[in-house]
Amino acid sequence: MAEFLMPSLGADMESAALVSWKVKPGDPIKRGMAIAEVETDKGVIEVEIFDEGVVEKLLAQPGPERIKVGTPLAVVGSGAPAPDNGKPQPPQAKPAPAAIPVATAAYRSAPDHHPMDHRAVAQAEAPAHARIQASPSARKLARELGVELTAVKGTGPHGVIQRADIERAAAVKATPMPQPTVAPKVELPVPPRKEVAPAAQPAAEQFQKNMRRAIAAAMSRANRDIPHYYLQTDIDMTHTLRWLEEQNAKRSVKERILPAVLLVKAVAKALVEVPQLNGYWVEDELRIEEGIHIGFAISLRQGGLIAPALHNADLLSLDELMNAVRDLIMRTRSNRLRSSELTDATITVSNLGDLGVETVYGVIYPPQVALVGFGKVGERPWAENGMLTVRKVLTATLAADHRASDGTQGAQFLEAIKRYLKEPDQL
Amino acid sequence: MNDAQIKQSIFQVVQSIAPEVDLNQWNPNENLMEALNIDSFDFLNFIVGLDEALGVGIPEGDYGKIDTLNKLVDYLSHKAPA
Fold first, then answer.
1. pLDDT at A204
2. How far is B5 from chain A (nearest CA, A)?
């Protein structure tokens, strides 16, 4: 027996509306299956479950009400009949170890973390808070400082409450200064899909407002908490682009690969060499992630930005990566993202080359520790071996969290990206 | 296929890629990607759409020849099967 909870789909998410169920009681479910659609400030997201079993009961009904992160939405059973009469157990039963998708998602790729630990502490110490995701040290500090966990917004990965959140909450309590808060929205807009009609304009406006608020929250936090440092390097792309053009000439129009895909792949491979930039800053330490999931910044037509994850980008061939990027862009713009794509990115790549920008100085998306920016590839004077020539040049920048890495590692990382881009047949 | 028919096909492809674009406001001499506010992925989808609609697979080397609507119509009128 397990409870399926409203997941946290990013540092800036507090609640979401349940749009629809994709399953009904009695349906078998598999790990990774999308079982519901929720609407966040970033649009409608398909929520995946990380349990297996059978849907026993749907606790929440679709509607415009905002449901807080951590609220039980459904009860999932093992699918096996109970020993007595086969009736499903009441939903009040304690969740099984694998019950909490938030915790599962948050710690999936960090084997040294045990989501069970957090929950065990929660249940033992504060039954009322059993479903709030907070680190043990944060819970302890909250007790010491008299901070109510329900009133704290977690800023760790997947909204997990950390010590810093408690400290901030305690500081707010102690300060009479009013804090800017976002009023909960009673009326929930339907985010505009591609085919939206002009009549739906007010909904589109509201969606944009919510999107701006979500970006504002994450970026303010980044600028407040993260000591950024910036490095940049120019890369001669002449040979690389010629190589790509030759490759594409052998392909059908549909199978062409775009230069942006080479950039993503080069970043992914460089992260294998410099893993310190692939992970999260949590609880005052760097947690390096094993999986390389590149958050690919995608602008929305109606305004705003989402950087969903390209999972295991280092393991994909250029063709697979091209398909993955194309699919991700399409689904981002048509509101069809999956929850893991919103939560799993371990670094962000922002490519503004199409807009004519030369250099991108990014703001890191917390709790990530780095963002790679690419500008446009353009002809520039290029001095090499005592000769001045004209080459197609790309400027790559790194914005990195100085708490998590130093300039030396940042420089090694940019150098590795450059090396991979100069040898595209190695990508 | 005359220019008007080609233009009609182009408009249909654009509508499937960037439905919010007001085709009446499209300046035929403006840079196509800027006028439509599309990125390189959209642009590739546009090229794929034109290939499917008109049977013309535009090579990457020719992208410079089709960077405005007028130039694209002119290019396609020479390449599209009659």
1. 77
2. 22
CB-based contact, A254 to chain B, within 8 Å: yes
Higher-pLDDT residue of A305 and A97 is: A305
**Nearest CA-CA distance, residue A332 and chain B, Å:** 13
pLDDT given for residue A126 in this prediction: 32
Has residue A118 got a pLDDT over 70?
Answer: no
Q: Which of A400, A367, A380 is nearest to A271 (CA)?
A: A400
Q: Judge whether residue B42 has pLDDT over 70.
A: yes
> Same domain for A223 and A364?
yes
The verdict on A237 and A277 lying in the same domain is yes
Q: Which residues of chain A have a CB within 8 Å of the CB of B48?
A: 253-254
Per-window interface: B 5-44 vs A, CB < 8 A:
18-20, 33, 37, 39-41, 44
Partners of residue B19 in chain A, C-beta under 8 Å: 194-195
Per-residue CA distances from B61 to A17, A245, B57, B58 (Å): 48, 8, 11, 8
Q: What angle do CA A272, A277, A278 make, to 5 degrees?
A: 65
Q: For residue B41, which residues of chain A lie inside 8 Å, CB to CB?
A: 258, 260, 325-326, 329
Domain that holds residue A251: 210-426
Instruction: Tell me what pLDDT residue A88 has.
Output: 45
CATH number for B3-79 (one of 2.40.50.140, 1.50.40.10, 1.10.1200.10, 3.40.50.10540): it is 1.10.1200.10
Nearest chain B residue to A326 by CA distance is: B41
Q: Which of A75-79, A101-105, A419-423 has the lowest mean pLDDT?
A: A101-105
Number of domains in chain A: 3
- Which residues on A lie below 8 Å from B45 (Cβ)? 326
B20 CB neighbours in chain A (<8 A) are 301-302
**Average pLDDT for A31-39:** 90
User: Mean pLDDT in chain A?
Assistant: 80
The residue ranges of DSSP E strands in A237-364, in sequence order, are: 279-282, 285-288, 294-296, 298-299, 305-306, 309-310, 337-338, 347-351
| Interface ipTM > 0.85 | yes
pLDDT in tens, A154-204: 766 666 676 667 666 665 544 333 333 333 323 333 344 444 444 556 777
pLDDT band at B18 (very low <50, low <70, confident <90, very high): confident
CA distances from B39 to A101, A355, A396, B18, B44 (A): 35, 8, 19, 11, 9
DSSP for A57-103, please give it: EE-S--SSSEEETT-EEEEEE-SSPPSSS-PPPPTTSPPPTT--HHH
Q: Nearest CB to B60: which of A245, A260, A302?
A: A245
